[in-house]
Amino acid sequence: MIENVDLTLVDWSRAQFALTAIYHWLFVPLTLGLSFIIAMMETIYVRTGNEEWKRITRFWMTLFGINFAIGIATGIILEFEFGTNWSNYSWFVGDIFGAPLAIEGILAFFLESTFVAVMFFGWNKVSKKFHLLSSWLVAIGANLSALWILVANGWMQNPVGMIFNPETARNEMVSFWQVLFNEVAVSKFLHTISSGFLLASMFVLGISAYYLLRKREDFLAKRSILIAGIFGLFSSLLVAYTGDSSARTLAKTQPVKFAAFEALYEGRQNAGLVAIGVLKESDRKLGEKAVNDFVFKVQIPGFLSVMTGGNKNAYVPGLYDLVNGNPSQGIMPVSEKITRGRTARDLLAEYKVAKQNNDLQKAGGISGMFRDKKFIDDYFRYFGYSFLGKPEEVVPNVKVTFYTFHLMVMLGFYFILVFAMALFFLFRGTLFKNRWFLWVALFSILLPYVAGEMGWVLAEMGRQPWIIQDLMPASAAVSQIGSGSVITTFILFAVLFTLLLIAEVSIMIRQIKLGPKH
Amino acid sequence: MNILISAVNRLFRFYHDGFRTMSWWGKRVWIIILIKLFVIFIILKIFFFRDFLQKKYETDEQKSEYVLDQLISK
């Protein structure tokens, strides 16, 4: 049972993973987006032959290089943590994680050792076209590299394409394509890379605004704002679109997380989408958990129903429905899922006894049941629920989920506005007159980082208690190690990553102040 | 054979020249990369992040047995 587990160990292991992932994500999105911006700028240079565009490309390539180099290998620590802190999970996922991560590793190695080298060392040594091709391949490769990580993460959010083998205690991939085209993975990939494009565009816009404020690098700044404005506006609209489709997928695959996004406790038809709201803990309870009521809210009537079901009459289940069940809507109570999960787990225990007693016929029969579709659909898919003590444990922290979601969405609309205004002022030739906007653009550099991290907090905290949706809670995934060692490495990471961040920011600021070489 | 030697030679010179003529920031980030890789792969991996199952068990059967026990007993 979940209450027998050392929760300090689980919490510290989660905190360490969160810290590592958050720091890692400070470096990744700029690489994803800036690589494309550089490739576009270089394309203009190759097509026009204008040396100014080469200068612009090389300047942004320098900043790309600093970020790329400092960020490289920070993600590998996450893999170390899987093996050390989350060994039950690592074993249980089997080759589902191994295959995408191996592809990612090979891709990253070839990408980094060849095309990045051509990008930086190849000016005047290889032909213009080959250099340009390398820049595009770096951009495409970096984003494809992200695909494999997100495929692995998508599987954790919506496990598909596998069968559990009781003999090895591992999940075995039966359909690579189901894992790759998992609807959660696809929408997550598109949403994540477009948010990286947006972040990089804001980075370019903000630094260009800095140059205009300092009345220097006029040509570079205006041309960069043109590219960043167009790419940023396109990306921010794509982020909104993919965010909408991600939410639609989520409503289907992780309905508890979706209801927590909106702090929706009572399910209903014609459900409204909360635009802004403030929550307060009430006296009402969902099991033993306090219910959060709205102190105030502004909502768009019927929009949540339309978003999830295509029309206003669509029923959107709330947390009460999802925990206690709602037979009229065909929603199974969590208590029933716990019972079914325990049936699957008891059968696993029987399998072990049969094997110990050398009763191969019985062991073979049970093993066959874990491959049977009906058993999988009716019992094994609820395996993780067997570790839960109380039904309400499936509800994540509603306040954190609600506020991170709404702040992220608000920032999303803000970004659309900033990019639209940048293009408007640029085409009107009034960028210099509107210095206030240049300051806004400069300080907005940080905001996509905030929005991106919010997105990850939302995705990962919103799916608690699960490490693999419905199959394994975090408490069952953790290794039996001392929490002291996890706390030590947590502090080590905090120091290491902070030093790396300081190094990156200081080298980058120095290069920005220096500007492009004349 | 000569073509291969020439290609390897050109590749070597490409990287050699690239590193030799590296800018200030390039040298700085390479120092950081090397320190970081040392910390990650030598200090962290060897002393703090040994694979839990690898450390305790030798064979896959033993690992499966252990995880199965964990799944049943938790």
Report a brief summary of the structure:
The complex is a heterodimer of chains A (518) and B (74). Chain A has 518 residues and is mostly helical.
Task: Summarize the structure in words.
The longest helix of chain A has 42 residues, at 7-48. In chain A, 69% of the residues lie in helices and 8% in strands. With 518 residues, chain A is mainly α. The model of chain A has no long low-confidence stretch (mean pLDDT 91). The radius of gyration of chain A is 25 Å and the shape is globular. Chain A folds into two domains: 2-254 and 397-461 and 463-514; 264-396, no CATH class. Chain A is built from 20 helices and six strands. In chain A, strands 1-2 form a two-stranded antiparallel sheet. A two-stranded antiparallel sheet of chain A has the order 3-4. Chain A has a two-stranded antiparallel ribbon with strand order 5-6. Chain B is an all-alpha fold and 74 residues long. Helix content of chain B is 85%, strand content 0%. Chain B has four helices and no strands. Chain B is elongated and about 60 Å long. Chain B starts with a helix and ends with a helix.
The CA-CA distance between the termini of chain A, in Å, is 67 Å
Helical stretch tally of chain A: 20
Strand content of chain A: 5-15%
Helices and strands of chain B: which structural class? mainly alpha
Element order, helices and strands of chain A?
Answer: HHHHHHEEHHHHEEHHHHHHHHEEHH
> Counting H and I runs of at least 4 residues, what is the number of helices of chain B?
4
Secondary structure category of chain A: mainly alpha
Helix content of chain B: over 70%
